[in-house]
Amino acid sequence: MGCCIVGCGKGLPLLDVTNDELAELVDTSDEWISSRTGIRSRRISVEESSLDLAEVAARQALGWDGETPGFKDQPAFAPEDIDLVLFATLTPDALLPSSAALLRRRLGLTNAVAFDLNAACSGFVYSLTVAEALMVASQSGTNGSKGRNKYRHALVVGAERLSRITNWDDRNTCVLFGDGAGAVVVEWRDDAPGIISSYIHNDDDTTNSLVCPASFDSPFVFDDNGVNAALANDPAGILADASLDRIDQELGVAEGVAAGEPRQAIRMDGQKVFKFAGNALTNAVLEVLDRADLTLDDIALIVPHQANERIIKFAAKKLGLGLERFQISIAHRGNSSAACVPMTLSDAYDSGKISSGDKVIMVAFGAGLTSGAVLYEA
Ligand code: UT7
Prior knowledge:
alpha+beta, globular
């Protein structure tokens, strides 16, 4: 018995932006981007919100838009079947309510407990791990539920609109990211193993290698003495928010912000993250194998986070695996953070690379620094 993946889907924005088109914005080239990252184009949301993309992915995973590749014998779920919605994102459309609550309302999932989770690019793997933990605990009653609140079906989503927090003047980052959403439905089954092992892990990002401060638009009206009455007479005047200065220092962005960089934009030290990513990916794969008492020979496919094809090649070499054992979908997507793993999983199902009974590892790494993996039997 266990938590089985019984539906999968993805939602992509319409606009496809090529490397050549980006070369009109910043000093870059198709040759540089494709040879350093494997990316040739990426989808960018113009009209679609993160929630719109998530809705498309979720409907597909729930079997509401016809048959889902890889799950042809699975009947569509009824809205009231879903007990739990976990929504991984670092680019929600709103702070309140959560994206999960909005998705619950749109889809009419009236029985679901719904909340968001931000673990950056590892968000989907973290969310799946949390969903599984809640489902397992609720079956056994160890969560004090007295048999109530049994979570038998979870909708787990990763959706991002990274284009809204991208500095389009920064060639170090703007060529890497894309938008999109992916979703899975997880079902508690008494007769199948489903998720066999999982692993989530944090390291401190001591050098601020991957950061994005939050921006707040409302005027700050308090000084050390309380409300600043002068502001009322000077609506354009905004008091310095000392806490913002401190967080900018802590994240190492103060100098850039003072020089006019957009505050709420992703900043990355690519080489530092690259080094972390290659090792984190490898370690997480080995860790879930060890926890499951399995070896790489037992694994049909690895579905990794898609940040850079070279990171996947690095990990493949370290693990002694051919690249055909990895699902690689980066060429026309780029890095869409928490959406990457479920979208890539959906690609693997679409192309028939996952069959019933196969053992699959999903693995991710990202800001935080976070990393993790989930090993399951399809
Ligand atoms: O999901 C979150 C996790 N993120 C990641 O995992 C990303 C990890 N890092 C990477 O994927 C790579 O480090 C990058 C793709 C970001 C950069 O590749 P790199 O091979 O590490 O390049 P680099 O940063 O060492 O830069 C090499 C050169 C530099 O020029 P100089 O100093 O050698 O003259 C850069 O200024 O390439 C330059 N450069 C560019 N040139 C053309 C940086 N970005 C670009 C660009 N086009 N877009």
